[in-house]
Amino acid sequence: MRIFLDTANLDELRKAAAWGVVDGVTTNPSLIAKEGVPMAEQVASICAIVDGPISAEVVATDVEGMIRDGREVAKIHPNIIVKCPLTRAGIQACSTLSKEAIRVNVTLCFSPAQALLAAKAGAWCVSPFVGRLDDIGLEGIGLIRDICRIYSNYGFKTQVLAASLRSPLHVVQAAEAGAHIGTMPFKVLDQMFNHPLTDKGLDQFLRDYAKAFPEGPAGQ
Questions:
Q1: Global pTM value
Q2: First and final CA of the chain: distance in angstroms?
Q3: Nearest 5°: phi and psi at 60?
């Protein structure tokens, strides 16, 4: 499963990119607004940090506006994936943009039926929101499993991008369910490194070595 970072913060992206495990980035209007920089400028800066698919969302709500926004956003950088919401207008815009070889991430997906429409419209990926379904007492990971099964049944090329992943457990469950991509906040990616036995084991290794070779790490 590819790992995307769900942020528009450049400091977080630089730190995560240095680890060598980030394959792409997802943004949305809320994340861009939080940084206080116009979308085109901020997304271009993100593309300079992470060499992979970078999702940037349209802000129009009508078909013509989404298509117009999508074409403009796609010009920012070759790695751009245009995000359209899973509405009637969004699906129509996805269909048009996909036929123009513009890759589209259909976002705000909450049901297998919606995901089927996204695939039929030629979406590059669909973004089911795991955590937000959990918030209302439904099983978000179950949606990932259902979509992956449907896409596999019919050979759809649309990828499943598990979004709203709020913990390392969510990430693992999404991977087990067959998601092609998981996107998460920096905090969740950082937490994936943590395990008390790793810390304990490393401490023991270093103490044992220091006892055997007190003169230094190279034994000189």
A1: 0.94
A2: 44
A3: -75, 160
What pLDDT, in 10s, does the model give residues 58-104? Answer: 999 999 999 999 999 999 999 999 999 999 999 999 999 999 999 99
Supply the residues annotated as catalytic.
83
Report whether pLDDT(130) > 60: yes
Closest to 183 measured CA to CA, from 3, 32, 47? 3
Architecture of domain 2-212: Alpha-Beta Barrel (3.20)
The per-residue DSSP string of 62-131 comes to SHHHHHHHHHHHHTS-TTEEEEEESSHHHHHHHHHHHHTT--EEEEEE-SHHHHHHHHHTT-SEEEEBHH
Q: Tell me the domain boundaries of the chain.
A: 2-212
Using DSSP, state whether 13 is helix, strand or coil: helix
Judged against a pLDDT cut of 70, whether residue 203 lies above it is answered with yes
H-run or E-run covering 61 = none
* Cβ–Cβ under 8 Å, residues 38 and 46: no
Q: What would the DSSP string read from start to end of 141-162?
A: HHHHHHHHHHHHHHT---EEEE
Q: How is residue 45 written in tokens?
A: 């800066």
Other residues' Cβ atoms within 10 Å of the Cβ of residue 184: 27
